[in-house]
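thought: fold this chain, then report.
action: predict
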Amino acid sequence: GVPDPGECAGSGGATLNALLCVAEELASRAGLSTLSAEPLRSARLLMLHVGSSARGGAAHPTLPQALAPLPVAAAEEGCVSGVLWTLRAASRLFAAMPPGLVVASTDSLLLLPPPAGWIDFTDGAGAPAAGLVVAVPAPVALAASHGVCVPGGNGGAQLGRIAYRAGAEKLMQMADDGAVPVYTGLLWLSARAATALLELHAR
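observation:
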């Protein structure tokens, strides 16, 4: 595991820090003596955000939430913790992904219908996508407490931004049959986008 670079790093800072550590490891395995993004261009990576310690009201008093045993109903599906559940979901969703980076949060548990390998890694016009986020429809009342995917200016499936804790009134304006797309904590970045993200560490 890779510890967060600081208490206030946030998920973005933690992702960048972990990506830097992975790039250093891949460069070392490739026999390079300096940091290079080149090995990232052909790698297929999965990064899990698992939290750091037990929280108030957690299912287990000492384990991080991601490692705590799930209820029996979940264990019957062959998973015993949030980490294993997330690994399983990501493996199904991104089995056919091209080189790139999957970032997954273990804070949410996705229930996937079979089959789940429906992700299109193009931009809708046939060109390779720079990245994508996984969202699920949720009622506005629930979505108001989470991140909602707001379409870009061109409409369609292009992501403009993720609005966190937006008011219910604002969300109703973009709702479809009372539901809006809620960000699940799963995203994929192409190898090119992951390489560009890595360049931020020097800025």
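thought: worth noting. The CA atoms of residues 89 and 110 lie 7 Å apart.
final: tokens above.
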